[in-house]
Specification:
heterodimer, A: mainly alpha, 0% strand, B: mainly alpha
Chain lengths: 59, 242
């Protein structure tokens, strides 16, 4: 493998890594907000026991 | 590649969430149901603090629970168990995704060997640090304004996580001082304080719930870290080479 291919492979991986990291952060925050923090009545009632168990601020 | 990593992370979190759901079912939900009986009794007694509360509470434990808010809610029984299990799995997926996302962004891999450490750091930041100011609560307890508590909760987690990041990755003395300041700051500011004396739930029940909740979350986070380590170990070489 030449030095050039190594460089191009690693830089591509770094971009992908940041992209995957941001995507995961977004998905994770959305899920956590929906379960734990959303003030919608349906979300609160469905996740009620889990909110208390995890220690999310509730009520 | 990215899609497969995201899917693997979510599945790892869901698996950990099912473990949490099972623990909740055995150790936590029964205490919540007890507290709701006291809450109903307290409300129907007009928040009077006499001894008859405990009698009323035990007299009607089977009454239809969960009446403190409007909108649809799962009925007691299988609906409520299912809702709790699904939301625990969603929480697991959410926490796992945030943890794995941070690992990718800062370039520190989660592996089979360090997975449990990642999980325990999650426990410190998301469960233990906020619990100092806002202990896990039961229905029927007196509480401060909800939004203020949510803001303090999120800020405490962010500051504690940043502090842990600095301690784990930096060696300069001033970064450790900064880390200590980040971790202590939320507690110096202080969590929103609840009004005194409005709780209708016995302190003994609250103590048992708090201990069980914190222990359950420790197990939950260990599983999140371990499962993430298992699924990310194989892709680590491709993901973190740069």
């Amino acid at each position: 493998m030449t030095a050039r291919t190594i460089t191009s492979t690693t830089s591509l991986t770094a971009t992908k890594r940041i992209a995957a990291g941001l995507a995961l952060l977004f998905v994770g925050s959305t899920l956590t907000f929906a379960v734990g923090l959303s003030s919608m009545a349906v979300a609160h009632n469905t996740a009620h026991d889990t909110r208390h168990a995890i220690g999310f601020p509730c009520h | 590649m990215i899609g497969r990593v995201i899917l693997a992370v979510l599945l790892a979190g869901i698996a950990a969430g099912f473990v949490m759901g099972a623990i909740q079912h055995v150790r936590l939900t029964p205490l919540i149901l007890d507290a709701e009986a006291f809450e109903r009794a307290g409300v129907s007694a007009g928040h009077s603090h006499d001894a008859s509360i405990s009698e009323t509470a035990t007299a009607q434990p089977e009454a239809d629970g969960h009446d403190h808010s409007e909108g649809w809610g799962p009925d007691n029984g299988w609906q409520r168990t299912l809702a709790t299990t699904v939301t625990a799995a969603m929480t697991g997926a959410g926490f796992a995704a945030i943890l794995a996302g941070l690992s990718l962004l800062i370039g520190v891999p989660i592996t089979r060997r360090n997975g449990i450490l990642w999980g325990l750091c999650g426990f410190l930041a998301v469960t233990l640090a906020p619990a100092v100011g806002l202990p896990p609560q039961l229905p029927g307890m007196a509480e401060a304004d909800l939004f203020a508590r949510q803001v303090w909760w999120v800020c405490t987690i962010a500051a504690t996580a940043a502090g842990i990041y600095l301690i784990a990755t930096q060696t300069l003395p001033w970064t450790l001082v900064l880390a200590a300041m980040l971790i202590l700051a939320p507690h110096l500011v202080g969590a929103p304080v609840p009004p005194h004396g409005d709780s209708v739930v016995p302190a003994e029940l609250v103590a048992r719930f708090v201990a069980n909740s914190i222990a359950a979350n420790a197990v939950f986070w260990c599983f999140i870290g371990l499962f993430l380590g298992l699924v990310l170990d194989r892709s680590a070489k491709d993901l973190y080479t740069s």
